[in-house]
Amino acid sequence: MIKDISIIRKELDGYEEIVLPFDFIKGCSVKYITLKKKNKEEEESFYPGGEFISMGNDCLILKKGHRTWQVPCCKRNKDGSIRYSTRFFIKSEEEKCDAKVKELNDIIKYQQDIIDTISKKLKELELVKYQITEEKHNYEDLLQQNRFNLKELSIQSREKDEKIKKYEDIIKKLANSHQMFQSSA
To answer: Which helix (H) or strand (E) holds 83?
Structure first.
């Protein structure tokens, strides 16, 4: 419980007072000023509060660390009328927006880093792909040239085989005629 106004002002910097009923977001930071009994007298004090957990029966349930507690929304007279309403403060929307913008900017930066890394890798892969494609075309050209050369060599070999066969036939005929010529002489 804090009573020093300068400390309270510092604590509430970036916070704004809300009016009940209010739609609290679970986990939001809630600070409050309420009445507490002290020596049979009630006095108003500031409390740094904690995280909002849920709403109870005319109270907020807050949590800080492992400790949870209830904060009464109001103090009632015996006839049920409200004699005091607790004042609640939450982070202002501007602070929430700034935090959200920072979080989103961090996400964007992280995603941009991923995109840059992927783009760099893609460029490298495109270069490798280009080199491989060029090599493939070169090998295909060499293969085509070798096929052509093989076909030419095959044709030349066939022509030489035919010539050899003709020469063998001529040699046989000459050998036969030479034998006939010698046997007749």
So the answer is: strand 82-85
